[in-house]
Amino acid sequence: PPPALLLVPDFPDGGEPSAERLRRQRVCLERLGRPAAPTDVRGTVQVLGGPGPKEVTVRYTFNEWLSFVDVPAAPLPPDPPAERYGFTLCVPPSLREGSALHFAIRYRSPQGEFWDNNAGRNYTLRCCGCPGGGPAPPAAAPP
């Protein structure tokens, strides 16, 4: 069988966003689901909210930004002082080992437009073969 593929973060896991980083950027990637599934990537975002309407989107690409998709993030229960949003990025079945998914997070509000793009490097997930690949072998019968 072909090897199983995983999307592996190609950036350090900084853990929870710091209060200082959130104050400075107004939007921060909170966490990704672990491990990222080969069919979708799920994550959460924190924003430093304010009055008025808000829009949080995740912009992502599979072809080095020749084209991209903007996906809206959905509000989650707040975690004061931040508001939280969840997102899901759909991964095409054509993604192959060595491919990359790049993304950045945009937050729009009456206070302006703010981005979390991993300090200008974008967030990157690399498509890697899983050791042992293929489906798991059947469990052995108990003696």
Automatic annotation (TrEMBL):
InterPro entries: CBM21_dom (IPR005036), CBM21_dom_sf (IPR038175), PP1_regulatory_subunit_3 (IPR050782). GO terms for cellular component: protein phosphatase type 1 complex. One of its GO terms (molecular function) is protein phosphatase 1 binding. GO terms for biological process: regulation of glycogen biosynthetic process. Residues 19-126 form the CBM21 domain. It holds the Pfam family CBM_21. Transmembrane segments: none annotated. PANTHER family: PROTEIN PHOSPHATASE 1 REGULATORY SUBUNIT, PROTEIN PHOSPHATASE 1 REGULATORY SUBUNIT 3G. This is PP13G phosphatase. It comes from Sapayoa aenigma. The lineage of its organism: Eukaryota, Metazoa, Chordata, Craniata, Vertebrata.
